[in-house]
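Worked example 3 (structure in, sequence out).
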């Protein structure tokens, strides 16, 4: 296990793992915003790269707590092909911060999938974050099982927030 802080989260989690995914990326976050990454000409939405990855067969699952931000929704609407490879579930109880890549690596910690959390915000505008990068197959598998059980709605029946849930799974 590798401990990560706000100083190296973006590089290790996004640049070295998420953007190198070959098969799937699973993301759980309490807050989902239009995050940007560096490119040759400056910055671009990460959804632009997700679109390219989707064209190569990478699939995406995202669990988050509330409606996506307007800017995320607007950017997502610019990539209709990505929407075929991107599944999103909203769960008001979701407060996880978890990223699993290809069943091989997992990040969990305090950072949301936002510019100030895992993105490339100016150093003076970033959140102070802390998390762990797991490479041990058994531990990654445990995290995948937790994510998948959550994804399949195991928590829905007894969650107590059904009246606030925009689309109950079960």
């Amino acid at each position: 296990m590798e401990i990560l802080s706000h100083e190296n989260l973006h590089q290790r989690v996004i640049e070295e793992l998420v953007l190198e995914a070959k098969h799937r990326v699973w993301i759980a976050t309490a807050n989902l915003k239009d995050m940007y990454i560096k490119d040759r000409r400056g910055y671009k939405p990460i959804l632009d790269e997700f679109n390219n990855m989707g064209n190569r067969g990478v699939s995406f699952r995202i669990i988050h707590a509330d409606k996506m931000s307007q800017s995320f929704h607007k950017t997502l609407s610019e990539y209709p092909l990505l929407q075929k490879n991107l599944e999103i579930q909203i769960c008001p109880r979701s407060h996880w911060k978890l990223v699993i890549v290809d069943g091989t690596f997992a990040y969990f910690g305090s950072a949301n999938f936002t510019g100030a959390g895992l993105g490339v915000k100016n150093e003076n505008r970033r959140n102070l974050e802390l998390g762990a990068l797991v490479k041990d197959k058994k531990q990654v598998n445990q995290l995948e099982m937790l994510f998948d059980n959550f994804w399949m709605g195991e928590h829905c029946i007894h969650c107590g927030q059904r009246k606030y849930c925009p689309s109950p799974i079960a």
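Notes: Residues 137-151 form the longest helix (15 residues). The domain at 2-152 is CATH 3.30.870.10 (Endonuclease; Chain A).
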